[in-house]
Backbone:
């Protein structure tokens, strides 16, 4: 395994629609392993192939940092339900967060590392992560659909004020 360089906003590759993967080869598995290592090194919860310069429809997500990673190859969101609004960040847009409206629940179909097509249901934060990473495969960054984009420092100040007033903690520090 090896870590990869993360592409950042302004690089053309992040704005392109990825091609299908098709067959799960050893090379695909190696790329996904590299992506996971890169994501974990950067303390992210998800990373999509174009973020490391690969124009294929695949991503790795690990919404629960202590949990098992999800390898999503040729994913397709087949249903969405409800709505939530929360802050998101991105490894490809370092130092910023923005407020994004996402479905509260999704059903996504994807091929796993064994080449099997599976259906998964995700809710709340997990659904947000999957939608965020899936957007990358279509050339969409969270900043395209976000409101209130601000620096991490500004978000931390907001969170500290909100926490002081309500006792709640913000998700602004999560990296995608």
Residues:
């Amino acid at each position: 395994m090896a870590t990869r360089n993360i592409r950042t906003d302004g690089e053309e590759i992040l704005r392109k629609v990825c091609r299908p993967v098709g067959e799960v080869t050893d090379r695909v598995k190696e790329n996904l392993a590299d992506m996971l290592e890169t994501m974990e090194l950067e303390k992210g919860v998800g990373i999509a192939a174009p973020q490391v310069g690969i124009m294929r429809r695949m991503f790795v997500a690990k919404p629960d940092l202590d949990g098992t990673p999800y390898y999503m190859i040729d994913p397709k969101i087949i249903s969405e339900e409800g709505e939530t609004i929360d802050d998101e960040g991105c490894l490809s847009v370092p130092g910023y967060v923005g407020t994004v409206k996402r479905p509260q629940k999704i059903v996504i179909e994807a091929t796993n590392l064994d080449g099997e097509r599976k259906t998964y249901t995700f809710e709340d934060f997990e659904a947000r992560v999957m939608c965020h990473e899936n957007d990358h495969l279509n050339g969409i960054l969270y900043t395209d659909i976000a409101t209130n984009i601000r620096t991490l420092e500004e978000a931390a100040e907001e969170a500290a004020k909100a926490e002081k007033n309500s006792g709640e903690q913000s998700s602004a520090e999560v990296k995608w």
Observations:
- The CA atoms of residues 47 and 60 lie 6 Å apart.
